[in-house]
Design a protein that fits this description.
The protein has two domains: 138 residues, HUPs (Rossmann fold), CATH 3.40.50; 143 residues, HUPs (Rossmann fold), CATH 3.40.50. A ten-stranded mixed beta sheet has the order 3-2-1-4-5-10-9-6-7-8, with helices on both faces. It is built from eleven helices and ten strands. Helix content is 42%, strand content 20%. Helix 5 runs parallel beside helix 6, helix 7 packs parallel to helix 9 and helix 10 packs parallel to helix 11. With 299 residues, it is of the alpha/beta class. The radius of gyration is 22 Å and the shape is globular.
């Protein structure tokens, strides 16, 4: 496996390093290659912006300053890594570099430091998710007391599309990365069905209302069965969790209370169509402050 880690020195990107550090033994055993990438925004007019020194030198100084901010985390990493400086715009450079370099996973913080605020929260993170051809793991800083371990409670959001099985396949192929003691749940969110009454004969409405639980159970099975089948093929035990209510609130609330990591597709169908580009992902990343693994759509 090859892992790309865009860094800016902020708390969230440091958590990305800590996330990998908790898996240091697995990374070493599997000879996983980890590369840190710092993208320096280009200085359009050095003199006007007060930069009278060599631009190349200033970019390298930024790079080294970023690594210095992460000194403690990097020294405690426990796994080998390389680091690289590229000048450009992060929203374009990160996904392009990951694709050209044939990286299997991008692990990144979801919010940048003040000097590059909004670097990974907002347009850049969404641009990376939209353009990346490999999975993206978004790490968030919760507090100084936050502990990151290999044992996690992981929820895979499914909607009946191909992304549930794809998520299960990625997890199955990299079980060690997720931790031998982690537990897995297949999450399905259903909008609450309203009882039939208006415009329907009372007797017929009663019959239809009685059928609703059975219909919901069938929908749940159809949506979750393909993902459970893939998990089973890899010998991964997973249980089904049925949630009810608005997609955004149901997932965020459940993640806040029960999960350490949420796995979701970048393009779903139906209710999940706007998962990444609408409010759901923003809510999951911003409000839940949980680690999110996004499986991209591939052509």
């Amino acid at each position: 496996m090859k892992i790309l880690v865009p860094v800016d020195g902020g708390l969230d990107s440091r958590k990305a390093i800590e996330f990998l550090s908790a898996r240091a033994q697995w990374l070493c055993d599997t000879q996983t290659k980890v590369e840190l990438l710092y993208v320096a925004k280009p200085v359009e007019d050095p003199v006007e912006q007060g930069n009278f020194y060599s631009t190349d030198a200033s970019y390298e100084a930024e790079h080294q300053m970023t690594l210095a901010r992460m000194k403690a985390e990097l020294e405690a990493a426990g796994f080998p890594f390389t680091h690289k400086l590229i000048v450009g715009h992060p929203a374009k450079i990160v996904p392009e570099y990951a694709k050209v370099g044939s990286f299997d996973l991008i692990v990144m913080g979801a919010r940048g430091l003040s000097m590059v605020k909004n670097l990974y929260m907002g347009s850049v993170s969404l641009a990376v998710v939209a353009q990346a051809t490999c999975p993206i793991l978004l790490c968030r800083y919760e507090s100084e007391e936050q502990e990151i371990s290999c044992s996690m409670r992981i929820g895979v959001a499914v909607d009946g599309s191909a992304f549930g099985p794809k998520s299960a396949e990625f997890i199955g192929e990299n079980k060690g990365f997720f931790g031998d003691k982690s537990t897995f749940e297949v999450l399905h969110v259903a909008e609450a069905d309203k009882p039939m009454s208006l415009g329907v004969e009372p007797t017929e409405a009663l019959k239809m209302n009685k059928k609703m639980p059975k219909m919901q159970a069938m929908k749940l099975e159809v949506a979750t069965a393909p993902t459970l089948e893939v998990f089973n093929e890899f010998g991964v035990e997973a249980k089904v969790v049925s949630l009810e209510g608005p997609l955004q609130k149901a997932l965020v609330d459940y993640a806040n209370e029960h999960l350490d990591l949420v796995v979701m597709g970048s393009h779903g169908k139906g209710a999940l169509r706007s998962l990444v580009f609408g409010s759901c992902t923003r809510a999951m990343v911003a409000d839940s402050r949980k680690t999110v693994l996004i499986i991209p759509k591939k052509d």
